[in-house]
């Protein structure tokens, strides 16, 4: 394609609201333009990159027997009410009415639609397993869209759904999809990790996220220093056994701690280490109050608490609620003398403390010399805290380290969560009705494009991997008014096209500096520059990722570029 015929509006300056590298470079290099907050147009170069990402996805989906279809973006609210997610999704669900005041949603995902389709069209176990997928625009009413394509109101997603007649069939296919995702992200050139994750509003239990490592990632990955173990920090398990200190329990005593509200303030005031304090927080769990207890150096993990209690909603109680229930405000509450109707859950680490400190449920007072086995009448112990760097890896190999990551894909075992609610059943081999079992698998296509740019850039622009670059070769003619340069440029353009290369030909009547700057911004992997040595058939080659440069004779260009494509 001749660059003079394309819409590539590059920018010299970084837009003021572009707060990540991917947002900055995709805007400056003319790949995207913002229509309004969280909604973007994908310009010709951006569309070419998306097409290449989608092609790789399709190849791997087809390889494991998935069927591509296209479902409507606008969905009936009735299906969402049937599944229970009409209320559960909250304000992020894009809702609308037609002229007859019927309710609809703009789909953030398609579990309801695809499950109802299977309910209506598949009646026998003989049709299963079956996998359907689509690549489509999704919608989410984000409160605060940010980070360019990483958190928007409108985005492109690949979503797939598998249907099975047994858990064993789902388990087998889940591994196939997991492997396919690993191949996809490897082919895209990404540095990524597959991590144990939480299913959130999707339902189901077993799930993995695929995370592209990035300093601006919104998720923290906990991974082993020596093994392949990796999990979202929300899901990483911690030990259930801790060595108790070898010391005699001292008598329980209540002491004044005036104006000491935080764990650090109390520890300093009473002159002990932070891990000798016990932190208590009151939560509202499905309209019932639950008091959690952790060591002072640990943090409560609400996701773990929610899973442990099999709850729908977990929120931190307000200060007024805490005062009403426990008789004290934040900073002075604890598990001793709590009313019987308040459930108490302590983290496993609490079980091993000795002569510790906790709030006395009286403002400005704490208990010292607290020993859980003696002083806590009714307490249940569980894994309810966030893992920390340096903790033992849950697989018993090495210790935990942290990294930041961008979620680019996720695979779920939904089980019968949606099929039960929407009545999707089949006749099994015994002729009896049986609810189908489901899996769900998503890839954020536009997020993936942004994640690639986060990992592939330098101080001049994007450095695309060959497999997703908008073009394979960027051909520049320094002086389009020079007949020898223009003639050689035209000749090489036709030659490269005939050899099957994807070529962007910069034939514009622009200064050399402008052409070089735009070329670096756009980031096409291989650059051929026709300049002063055109009369000798000599051109300059530049590798965009390494910025290495060399001279080539026109007769060697085809073979040289083919060798680059095979890397």
CATH C-level of the largest domain:
Alpha Beta
What structural class results from the helix and strand content? alpha+beta
Provide the β-strand percentage band: 25-35%
- What's the CATH architecture of the largest domain? 2-Layer Sandwich
- Coarse morphology: globular
Tally of strands: 31
Domain Aminoacyl-transfer RNA synthetases class-II family profile: 38-465
Keywords: Aminoacyl-tRNA synthetase, ATP-binding, Cytoplasm, Ligase, Nucleotide-binding, Protein biosynthesis
Subcellular location: Cytoplasm
EC number: 6.1.1.15
Helices and strands in order, then pairings?
Elements: H1 21-28, E1 32-36, E2 39-42, H2 44-63, E3 67-68, E4 74-76, H3 77-83, H4 85-88, E5 94-97, E6 103-106, H5 111-121, E7 130-139, E8 154-164, H6 167-187, E9 192-196, E10 207-213, E11 219-224, E12 230-232, E13 253-256, H7 263-270, E14 278-285, E15 288-295, H8 302-308, E16 314-316, H9 319-326, E17 343-347, E18 356-359, E19 365-370, H10 372-375, E20 380-382, E21 400-415, H11 417-422, E22 425-427, E23 433-435, E24 437-444, H12 445-455, E25 457-458, E26 461-462, E27 473-477, H13 483-498, E28 503-506, H14 512-522, E29 526-530, E30 538-543, E31 549-553, H15 557-565
Parallel strand pairs: 3-7, 15-17, 17-20, 27-28, 27-29
Antiparallel strand pairs: 1-2, 4-6, 5-6, 7-8, 8-24, 9-10, 10-21, 11-12, 11-21, 13-19, 14-15, 14-16, 18-19, 21-24, 22-23, 25-26, 29-30, 30-31
Helix pairs in contact: 1-12, 2-6, 2-12
Task: Walk me through the structure.
Belongs to the class-II aminoacyl-tRNA synthetase family. ProS type 1 subfamily. It comes from Pelagirhabdus alkalitolerans. This is Proline--tRNA ligase. The protein has 567 residues and is of the alpha+beta class. It folds into 3 domains: 17-202 and 410-453, BirA Bifunctional Protein, domain 2; 253-382, YbaK/aminoacyl-tRNA synthetase-associated domain (YbaK protein); 471-565, Rossmann fold (3-Layer(aba) Sandwich). The strands form 8 sheets. Strands 3, 7, 8, 9, 10, 11, 12, 21 and 24 form a 9-stranded mixed β-sheet that branches. It is globular and about 95 Å long. The mean pLDDT is 94.
């Amino acid at each position: 394609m001749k660059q003079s015929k394309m819409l590539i509006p590059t920018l010299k300056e970084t837009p003021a609201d572009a707060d990540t590298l991917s947002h900055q470079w995709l805007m400056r290099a003319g790949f995207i333009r913002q229509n309004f907050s969280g909604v973007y147009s994908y310009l010709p170069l951006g569309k070419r990159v998306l097409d290449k990402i989608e092609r790789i996805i399709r190849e791997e989906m087809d390889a494991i027997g998935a069927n591509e279809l296209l479902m409507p973006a606008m969905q009936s609210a009735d299906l969402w009410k049937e599944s229970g997610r009409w209320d559960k999704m909250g304000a992020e669900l894009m809702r609308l009415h037609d002229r007859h005041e019927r309710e609809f949603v703009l789909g953030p995902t398609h579990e309801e639609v695809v499950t109802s389709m299977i309910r209506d069209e598949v009646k026998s176990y003989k049709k299963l397993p079956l996998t359907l997928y689509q690549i489509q625009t999704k919608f989410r009413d984000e409160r605060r869209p940010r980070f360019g394509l990483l958190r928007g109101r409108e985005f492109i997603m690949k979503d797939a759904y598998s249907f099975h007649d047994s858990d064993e069939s789902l388990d087998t296919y889940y591994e196939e999809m997991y492997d396919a995702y690993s191949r996809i992200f490897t082919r895209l050139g990404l540095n990524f990790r597959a991590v144990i994750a939480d299913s959130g509003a999707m339902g189901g239990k077993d799930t993995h996220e695929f995370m592209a490592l990035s300093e601006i990632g919104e998720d923290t990955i906990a991974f082993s220093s020596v093994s392949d173990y990796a999990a979202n920090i929300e899901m990483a398990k911690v030990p259930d056994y801790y060595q108790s200190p070898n010391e005699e329990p001292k008598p329980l005593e209540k002491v004044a701690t005036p104006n000491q509200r935080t764990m650090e303030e109390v520890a300093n005031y009473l002159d002990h280490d932070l891990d000798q304090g016990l932190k208590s927080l009151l939560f509202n769990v499905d309209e019932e109050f639950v008091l959690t207890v952790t060591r002072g150096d640990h943090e409560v993990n609400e996701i773990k608490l929610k899973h442990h209690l099999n709850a729908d909603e977990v929120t931190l109680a307000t200060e007024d609620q805490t005062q009403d229930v426990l008789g004290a405000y934040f900073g002075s509450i604890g598990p001793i003398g709590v009313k019987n109707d308040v459930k108490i859950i302590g983290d496993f680490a609490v079980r091993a403390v000795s002569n510790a400190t906790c709030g006395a449920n009286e403002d400005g007072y704490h208990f010292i010399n607290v020993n859980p086995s003696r002083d806590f009448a009714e307490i249940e112990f569980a894994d309810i805290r966030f893992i920390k760097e340096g903790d033992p890896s849950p697989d018993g190999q090495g210790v935990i380290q942290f990294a930041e990551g961008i979620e680019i894909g996720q695979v779920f075992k939904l089980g019968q969560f949606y099929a039960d609610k929407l009545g999707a059943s089949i006749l099994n081999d015994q002729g009896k009705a049986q609810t189908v079992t489901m899996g769900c698998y998503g890839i954020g296509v536009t997020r993936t494009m942004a994640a690639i740019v986060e990992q592939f850039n330098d101080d001049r622009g994007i450095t695309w991997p060959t497999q997703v670059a908008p073009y394979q070769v960027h051909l520049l003619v320094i002086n389009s008014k020079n007949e020898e340069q223009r003639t050689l440029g035209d000749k090489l353009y036709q030659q490269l096209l005939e050899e099957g290369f994807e070529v962007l030909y910069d034939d514009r009547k622009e200064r050399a500096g402008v052409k070089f700057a735009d070329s670096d911004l756009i980031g096409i992997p291989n650059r051929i520059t026709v300049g002063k040595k055109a009369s000798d058939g000599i051109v300059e080659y530049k590798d965009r990722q390494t910025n290495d440069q060399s001279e080539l004779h026109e007769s060697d260009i085809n073979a040289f570029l083919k060798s680059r494509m095979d890397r």
